[in-house]
């Protein structure tokens, strides 16, 4: 259906464009104080048909030679030679046409007429080529953007689909540790886990969610972990009210918070502190997660850990170079994870 639509548009442009030029030429002919006779109209009609025929052949050769697939400066000499060849062929056609119809050529200046006709044809074929190539350049550009967007969508969905099983596994491990030790707290933990799963499933179809929704999931997660770690985990939230106007990838902040607890605080005998803070500066949201522990960059397949690698990929797909991510040791006691994202209005 799309192919037939584009073909129909092409022929409409061909017929309307060249017919408009024919009418314009006849009007100029009359305005230059020439008497318009049926022979002139017939000649212009046949010339218009030749313009349509020659440019259509040219179009087929462009497609056959693959010039639309790789539009580059290397094509310019080829296009110029093609335009010159078309202009020469059209000039020869006009000579044959005038001879066949008995239309007289300016006998006083035949060379001037010939040069004028040749360069007029050269200009017309140049305009046609420019319009055709520019149109297809933008068409290819839009197609490339759509293709890249579809690839990004597939990758984002794959990354998001990895988060839920990963989180569920960790949450169930936390609950399992509480079942024998404290059944009542285990029941509370099951409730917290169900709340988190409900939130995550509701945002599963979105590429971005409002920061308020993400913060709600983070709070539920921290309450679940507080049940497990009790006094070993101290949490601090310092949220800039302006943060609520920003959109973030679903479960991104929760994943980073989980990463800080699992790889930092959980490994400390006495536990530690996790602080989540945000601030808005120059139209950007800065998210900071500071947790007790020390960061050791991994190598090989486990480089930077699962949660961090997932976050870095999602930020790159969604924001490109506009987002920033960094994790490092703040001092000998704390690890600092920082994310900076621009403001997006579309969720």
Short key terms for the protein model shown above:
about 350 residues, alpha+beta, 2 domains, two-stranded antiparallel ribbon, 8 helices, 7 strands, about 65% helix
Written account of the structure:
With about 350 residues, this protein is an alpha+beta fold. It has two domains: about 140 residues, no CATH class; about 160 residues, Heat Shock Protein 90, CATH 3.30.565.10. The protein has eight helices and seven strands; from the N terminus they run αααααβαββαββαββ. Helix 3 packs across helix 4, helix 4 packs antiparallel against helix 8 and helix 6 runs parallel beside helix 7. It starts with a helix and ends in a 5-residue tail after the last strand. The relative contact order is 0.07.
User: Total domains, how many?
Assistant: 2
Q: Which descriptor suits the 3D outline?
A: rod-shaped
Mean pLDDT: 81
List the helices and strands in order. Answer: HHHHHEHEEHEEHEE
Q: Tally of extended strands?
A: 7
The name of the CATH topology of the largest domain is Heat Shock Protein 90
Strand content: 5-15%
The first-to-last residue Cα distance is: 32 Å
Percent range of helical residues: 55-70%
- Derived structural class: alpha+beta
Q: How would a textbook summarize the main sheet?
A: 5 strands, mixed
Q: How large is the count of helical segments?
A: 8
Record the strand order, biggest sheet.
2-4-5-7-6
Q: Do you know the CATH architecture of the largest domain?
A: 2-Layer Sandwich
CATH first level of the largest domain: Alpha Beta
Low-confidence stretches: 299-303
CATH superfamily caption of the largest domain: Histidine kinase-like ATPase, C-terminal domain
Radius of gyration, in Å, reads 35 Å
């Amino acid at each position: 259906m799309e192919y037939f639509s584009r073909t129909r548009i092409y022929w409409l442009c061909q017929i309307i464009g060249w017919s408009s030029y024919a009418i314009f030429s006849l009007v100029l002919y009359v305005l230059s104080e020439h008497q318009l006779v049926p022979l002139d109209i017939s000649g212009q009609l046949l010339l218009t048909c030749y313009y349509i025929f020659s440019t259509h052949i040219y179009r087929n050769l462009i497609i056959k030679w693959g010039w639309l697939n790789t539009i580059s400066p290397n094509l310019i000499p080829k296009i110029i030679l093609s335009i010159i060849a078309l202009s020469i062929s059209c000039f020869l056609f006009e000579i044959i046409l005038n001879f066949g119809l008995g239309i007289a050529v300016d006998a006083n200046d035949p060379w001037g007429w010939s040069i004028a006709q040749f360069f007029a044809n050269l200009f017309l074929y140049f305009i046609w080529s420019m319009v055709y190539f520019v149109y297809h350049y933008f068409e290819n550009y839009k197609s490339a953007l759509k293709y890249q967007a579809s690839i990004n969508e597939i990758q984002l969905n794959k990354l998001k689909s990895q988060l839920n099983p990963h989180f569920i596994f960790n949450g169930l491990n936390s609950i399992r540790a509480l079942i024998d030790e404290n059944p009542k707290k285990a029941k509370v933990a099951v409730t917290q886990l169900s709340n988190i799963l409900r939130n995550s499933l509701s945002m599963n179809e979105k590429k971005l969610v409002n920061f308020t929704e993400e913060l709600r999931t983070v709070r539920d997660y921290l309450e679940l972990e507080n049940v497990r770690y009790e006094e070993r985990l101290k949490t601090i939230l310092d949220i800039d009210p302006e943060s609520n106007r920003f959109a973030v990838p679903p479960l991104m902040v929760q994943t980073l918070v989980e990463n800080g607890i699992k790889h930092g605080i959980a490994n400390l005998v006495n536990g530690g502190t996790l602080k989540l803070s945000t601030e808005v500066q120059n139209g950007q949201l800065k998210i900071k997660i500071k947790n007790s522990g020390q960061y050791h960059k991994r190598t090989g397949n486990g480089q930077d850990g699962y949660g961090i690698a997932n976050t870095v990929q999602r930020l790159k797909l969604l924001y490109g170079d506009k987002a920033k991510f960094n994790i490092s040791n703040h001092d000998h006691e704390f690890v600092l994870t920082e994310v900076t994202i621009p403001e997006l209005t579309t969720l």
